[in-house]
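In full, the data.
>
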Amino acid sequence: MGKRLAQLAIHQAIHLIPQPAVKLAAWLMLTIAFSLSLSVAQAADQPEGFDQLSPLVQSRWNSDDGLLDLSWEDLIPEGFRADAILDQYDPEKIAMLTDDDPLIIEIMEKLQKAYQSAPVLGKLDGMPVRLGGYIAPLEITPEGVTEFLLVPYFGACIHTPPPPSNQIIYVKTEIPIAESLLEDAIWVSGRLSIDSADTDLALAGYTLYSEHIVPIEY
């Protein structure tokens, strides 16, 4: 509606000026002013701190929904690798070791510590986001799931070890999710927090207060 009114105002202003040259100048000035006003309006819709995000993450902004459509990689600070500890060891030697070898046990302990202390991206705190993933249920009521971990692949934290903590999001929802959706990929949208959550299944580096959850349709 605001855009349409602005267009009408430009059209009327042009026709109030009879001279062709003045009319052209007025049209150019009003068009520039209109474009600037649209840019300001779009910037006003973006959340506080948006300009501090990387250009790649800023490109995820969905102006129609007012959300950042994030990928899981966007949650990882630049340059961080949870498995960087493995660079200290000879992969061929590791491949020859058994599971009960002291060196393997040492490496696994270091990996677990690195996974649990994986850093989060502080600039995402408070951002409205949407992310696709799978459910690792924490709280199941007769109505459905009300608390769960959102994870990047099916079975994480249940059938397989947890991924790094910055790849796990603790989700609290007021609208229970039907148990029939537990094996489906879902979209979750809401306000993201960098508050961690230590749960029975895993340590989550992020918390998301869900506002909307829907199955992903392929």
